[in-house]
């Protein structure tokens, strides 16, 4: 079982239903304190510590081969499901045209990328319920280290008003009274 450290973040949010008078209020939310980003070599070393018979270079070789094959399959239009982890799949953004005969992929496709959907099967450890059950959440550790007893302003540019709900990476504005912008919007840190 792991421990995720949480810091308190004060944010101004708009509450109330659209079309009705709305007001801005300050609320305190939790935000994950990321410990860092683990790279391929870090993960290979970690795998070895779990009693793997394979050396770090072999683990790195297998993961590198997997990465290259995933890239190849995605480029060929396949979804790639890694059982117990999730599914990677190609996505695109395109400009619409009034007449279908005027659509040209090289002119109208504006972005090609990759999305990820965490495994949501009953036995998945990546489901929100399983993550919550298998994780200790600690705000006390951070507060004790920092001598903090009041909510801390959000240091992210723009005060974190993106409306990221932190629910599966979905984003959207605070509409219909949704006042939970306490999501983590920078998974790289």
Q: What is the H/E string?
A: EEHHEEHEHEHE
Low-confidence stretches: 149-189
How far apart lie the N and C ends?
Answer: 21 Å
Mean pLDDT score? 76
Number of helices: 5
What structural category characterises the helix and strand content?
alpha/beta
Using only CA atoms, what is the Rg? Answer: 21 Å
Tell me the β content. Answer: 25-35%
Q: What is the number of E strands?
A: 7
Walkthrough of the structure:
The chain has 189 residues and is an alpha/beta fold. It contains five helices and seven strands. Strands 1, 2, 6 and 7 form a four-stranded mixed beta sheet that branches. The protein has a three-stranded antiparallel beta sheet with strand order 3-4-5. Strand 1 and strand 2 form a beta hairpin. Helix 1 crosses helix 2. The protein is flat. Residues 149-189 have low confidence and may be disordered.
Helix/strand layout:
Blueprint: E1 2-15, E2 23-32, H1 40-49, H2 56-75, E3 80-82, E4 86-94, H3 105-108, E5 109-118, H4 128-133, E6 135-138, H5 140-146, E7 152-153
Parallel strand pairs: 1-6, 1-7
Antiparallel strand pairs: 1-2, 3-4, 4-5
Helix pairs in contact: 1-2
Keywords:
single chain, 189 residues, alpha/beta, 4-stranded mixed β-sheet, 3-stranded antiparallel β-sheet, 5 helices
